[in-house]
């Protein structure tokens, strides 16, 4: 019971990362009346004291990449508040610290990028595949357990960028045919001080895409600052985000009017895929996200193909020339206008 007691005392992170302690499931009720279920190592389900059938089902995940620590610290802070009775959620919440092995190793992943393993069941060839399979099962279990008549599902998958960025915080909205870009979601981003949103135009098997595609969740991948070790994050720069997160889980409903013009929207113009070992950029992989190139600038090449920035210019996001063959080397994006209705849509 040592691990369970450590979680009950509020140290969700410490218990998750101590792999010397055997894991066991547990259920209990905290002093505030909130019900807790420890479902797997690093996964805690929280249910408010009084279920009314109008609750949201909110997944808050971190640690899908093990070296991205600031979101993990935010999840620990929120969880500690719940476990010690200071935070009383109004909604069902699934709190996730996703990849303990990679976190302990202070690395992005062990063998394979886990945030590309959420399209369905994986052959369990390594620990990354095993954890991705477990997380997909627990997501299915969580959403299936909702008692709300009108399913209002959210998934905020929190990360940190591995390089500098022109926007300190930004979100990636995964592509799906489901209605997962609500005005309410963008209103939350505006309240949280997120600087930009990148609207994907193609499916990618990330954790947030999984929830959007299979469960029609209002889902985002959130990039919160830059990678740093535990204790070295400037969490004060994320305080506005944390306060909005706290409001999301404790208030019955947030204002749904998106009024902040400072939230910049980007559309993906192209995805550059690495087709050969000759692939290269004309700039370093460490280039800051959203660095802009005027029209006609040579961006890179792959064998006998050269890539030039398109009309109007393009900005580069997530550049990495060292990816495996057939994988994304970067996204190219442009700022875009949107139409505001029940769903936020790119203006044609």
TrEMBL record:
Its cofactor is Zn(2+). HAMAP family: Arg_catab_AstE. Residues 262-335 form the AstE/AspA barrel-sandwich hybrid domain. It is an enzyme of class 3 (hydrolase). It catalyses: N-succinyl-L-glutamate + H2O = L-glutamate + succinate. The keyword GTP-binding does not apply. This is Succinylglutamate desuccinylase. Residues 56-248 form the Succinylglutamate desuccinylase/Aspartoacylase catalytic domain.
């Amino acid at each position: 019971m040592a691990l369970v007691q450590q979680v009950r005392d509020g140290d969700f992170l410490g218990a998750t990362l101590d792999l010397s302690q055997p894991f066991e499931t547990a259920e209990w009720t905290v002093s505030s009346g909130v019900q807790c279920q420890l479902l797997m190592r690093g996964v805690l389900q929280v249910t408010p004291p009084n279920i009314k059938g109008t609750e949201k089902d909110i997944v808050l995940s971190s640690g899908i990449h093990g070296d991205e620590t600031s979101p993990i610290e935010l999840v620990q802070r929120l969880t500690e508040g719940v476990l010690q009775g200071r935070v009383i959620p109004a909604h069902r919440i699934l709190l996730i610290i996703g990849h303990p092995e990679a976190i302990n190793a202070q690395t992005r992943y062990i063998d394979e990028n886990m945030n590309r393993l959420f399209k369905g069941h994986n052959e369990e060839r390594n620990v990354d595949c095993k954890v991705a399979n477990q997380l997909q099962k627990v997501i299915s279990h969580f959403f299936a357990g909702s008692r709300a008549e009108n399913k209002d599902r959210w998934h905020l998958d929190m990360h940190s960028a591995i390089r500098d960025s022109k926007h300190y915080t930004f979100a990636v909205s995964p592509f799906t045919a489901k209605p997962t870009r609500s005005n309410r979601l963008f209103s939350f981003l505006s309240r949280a001080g997120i600087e930009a949103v990148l609207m994907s135009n193609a499916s990618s098997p990330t954790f947030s895409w999984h929830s959007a595609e299979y469960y029609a969740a209002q889902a985002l991948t959130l990039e919160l600052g830059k990678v740093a070790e535990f204790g070295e994050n400037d969490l004060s720069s994320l305080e506005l985000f944390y306060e909005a997160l706290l409001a999301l889980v404790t208030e019955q409903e947030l204002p749904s009017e998106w009024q902040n013009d400072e939230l910049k929207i980007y559309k993906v113009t192209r995805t550059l895929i690495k087709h050969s070992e000759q692939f290269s950029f004309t700039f370093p992989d460490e280039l800051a996200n959203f660095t802009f190139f005027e029209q006609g600038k040579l961006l890179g090449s792959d064998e006998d193909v050269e890539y030039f920035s398109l009309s109007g210019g393009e900005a580069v996001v997530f550049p990495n020339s060292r990816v495996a063959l057939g994988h994304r080397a970067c996204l190219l994006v442009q700022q875009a206008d949107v139409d505001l209705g029940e769903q936020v849509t790119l203006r044609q």
